[in-house]
């Protein structure tokens, strides 16, 4: 006799590719290519729609209760308890220079006369040099 479908808590991330506002459901595609449907509420509808409008980020993370087939495959999210926009992973080059190293390189590449005209009190009176008014007085 086959096992019945079962439910358990999940957290999945995927790209939203379809929204049905009438039925209050959306579909996302997981990194392994599986299409999964999930419900949304008035409170989290804006997040689901936002990922379709943002060309840089189409990923969403859903935490909630999911239904699985008897063989253990994810079938659908039954209740989405939390829906958040997932930030894409950024690749960081461990060999890239730090911001301090980049500033030091710019300073070293500049001729000395470049820095001769920089006021010595620039950091304390930057409002005066930017706006022409010393905002710290008064």
Give a brief outline of the structure:
The chain has two domains: 6-85, Nucleic acid-binding proteins (OB fold (Dihydrolipoamide Acetyltransferase, E2P), Beta Barrel); 91-138, no CATH class. Helices cover 22% and strands 34% of the residues. The protein has helices spanning 45-53, 99-109, 112-116, 126-131, and strands spanning 6-20, 25-29, 35-39, 59-68, 74-85.
Question: What do you see in this structure?
Answer:
This protein has 2 domains: 6-85, Nucleic acid-binding proteins (OB fold (Dihydrolipoamide Acetyltransferase, E2P), Beta Barrel); 91-138, no CATH class. The protein is elongated and about 80 Å long. The model has no long low-confidence stretch (mean pLDDT 86). β2 (25-29) and β3 (35-39) form a beta hairpin. The chain has a 5-stranded antiparallel β-sheet. 10% of the residues are buried. The chain is built from 4 helices and 5 strands, in the order βββαββααα. It has 138 residues and is α+β, with helices and mostly antiparallel strands.
Comma- or semicolon-separated keywords:
5 strands; 2 domains; alpha+beta; OB fold (Dihydrolipoamide Acetyltransferase, E2P); five-stranded antiparallel β-sheet; 4 helices; 138 residues
